[in-house]
Specification:
The protein has a 4-stranded mixed β-sheet with strand order 3-1-2-4, with no helix packed on it. With 158 residues, the chain is of the alpha+beta class. Strand 1 and strand 2 form a beta hairpin. It is built from 3 helices and 4 strands.
Length: 158
Amino acid sequence: MRTSRLRTVHPVLWAGWAALAAGAVLCAVGWYGVSGERYAERQLPYLASCTIPGAALIIAGAVLLAQGRGSVAAARVEELYGLLVAAGPAGTEETGRAVLAPLAVSGDLLMVPGGTLWHRADCPLVAGKAEAVPVDSKLVASGELDACPICEPAEETD
């Protein structure tokens, strides 16, 4: 799957490198021709036939390389998305709908001192934090703390 998409992108990269090389050669030939001529009217043909087209090829090669690298990145993103979609969600029923398990189910409520939210004890935002302390029911009743939107603890505590 990956090789078929990336092979279509590689010619753009090769064309970019070829244009850069050809442009560098033309600029070198133009410089050599200009440096061997004493009068400006004899230098103009080298500028017109070698240096200007060489500079244009260098610019075109740089554009092709930038476009090719972007296409490679886009192909990789599409491949990863395809793999992700093919894998499907981890918890699916036979009907094809996803089963949404609660993120945290603990009945113990915690808060971080100085924080504005209260959490279930197994909420990933406070789990394993030594500074997390049990919630005072007076703080919850006064409305100073809001419920965590991640673990969605019960609104009322005893």
